[in-house]
# Entry
Amino acid sequence: MIDVFRRSAAEFVGTFALVFVVVGTVLVAAPSASSGLIEVALASGLVIAVMASAVGHISGGHFNPAVTLGFLVTGRLSPIIALSYWVAQFAAAVAAVPLVKWIFPSDLEGTLGAPALGPGIAPEAAMILEAILTFFLVWVVFATAADPRGTFKSIAGLAIGLTITFDTLMAGPITGAAMNPARALGPQLFDGNWDNFWVWYVGPLAGGVLGALAYEWLYLRPLRPAVVGPPETGVVEPRPGDTALS
# Structure
């Protein structure tokens, strides 16, 4: 139980940092402008890169219910740990937003970073885009962190953070590029903006499951039993009682 608490605490801190930094960046930047979009993209990617590198060895560095769901459906996380992660992630997102709102000057109050659809974007298209973006994210998480041949100890955090950065640069003006139900919920609660809210839950969760299953089936599960045969190298020592043939 103590181990579950410690792992969940790491998820809380990482998710809190993500929402706190992104909402703060949205308040001081103008995401509709190109410079504001770059600031939000870099803030999102950098905070995940740093936090995943810092506590990835403790909790896996999910900070995202969609990533946790991917690990759950592939059997890489027990249901009790997945549930504790979700509680920590959503609680962190809900706690971060009012704190940012309280700290920042009142004249900056406005949007708190709740994701929204860009002009002319249909909700169904936005949901599919969020699913694709989250597919990329979870694919990279599995490739760098879940795959034993991956690079978790060296550059996994950087790779995951850069994935969030390029996803945000591409889709920030279109869907907000949340890719994360917790990242969506915190601002939605305090912005009061629930228009098409399901886009940022159905899309990321579906994309997370597809990304996890695709990588798991393609690269982490053997397609056939391993071939059993004689060792390729080395000398087989004779057993007691064996007779050498001349």
